[in-house]
Structures are given as structure tokens and as C-alpha cells.
Design a protein that fits this description.
4-stranded antiparallel sheet; Alpha-Beta Plaits; globular; about 80 residues; alpha+beta; about 35% strand; 2 helices
Length: about 80
């Protein structure tokens, strides 16, 4: 699992990519291109540097057809629920 944490608009945002689940759909990159990319194996990764706004990150995570991206905000798992 790849995990990175950043502060966005005063909130601690943690993104986790569960690499074995990723099927290379690439929709996360379409919705949040400053946050997500695909590596040489076409598996989602979290980019270094500045990230997108939280709305775009959530849209990228929610677009994943296999729920391979988790978003935790201020210690609370926001996506996927449950």
C-alpha cells in the first residue's frame, strides 16, 4: 500500500493506494492529474509535489471502479465508506 499525507485547506489529508487492487483504469488521473499518475506498470501512484484541491482528489478516488484509493481526512476515513 502506498500512503502519503498532506495538509490541504487546513485539513490533514491522507491518500492510500491499495496497489494489488488497481486495474489501471486511469480515471483517478483524469479527475486529479496533479495528485495521481500511473507508474511504468500502469498502477496508480501518488505524485510528489502539489496536489489538487480536495474536491478533485475525492472525485479521483470515487472514480476508481475497484475502490483501490482510500481518502482519510483528519483521521476519519471519508472514502470508501464502511
Amino acid at each position: 500500500m502506498e500512503t502519503q499525507t498532506r495538509t490541504i485547506d487546513g485539513q490533514e489529508v491522507e491518500i492510500r493506494i491499495i496497489r494489488p487492487k488497481c486495474i489501471s483504469a486511469g480515471t483517478c488521473v483524469v479527475y486529479a492529474p496533479d495528485t495521481f499518475d500511473l507508474d511504468d506498470e500502469d498502477i496508480a501512484i501518488i505524485k510528489e509535489g502539489g496536489w489538487d484541491r480536495l474536491e478533485k482528489i475525492m472525485a479521483g478516488a470515487e472514480s476508481c471502479p475497484v475502490y483501490a484509493i482510500e481518502v482519510i481526512i483528519d483521521g476519519v476515513k471519508k472514502y470508501p465508506k464502511g
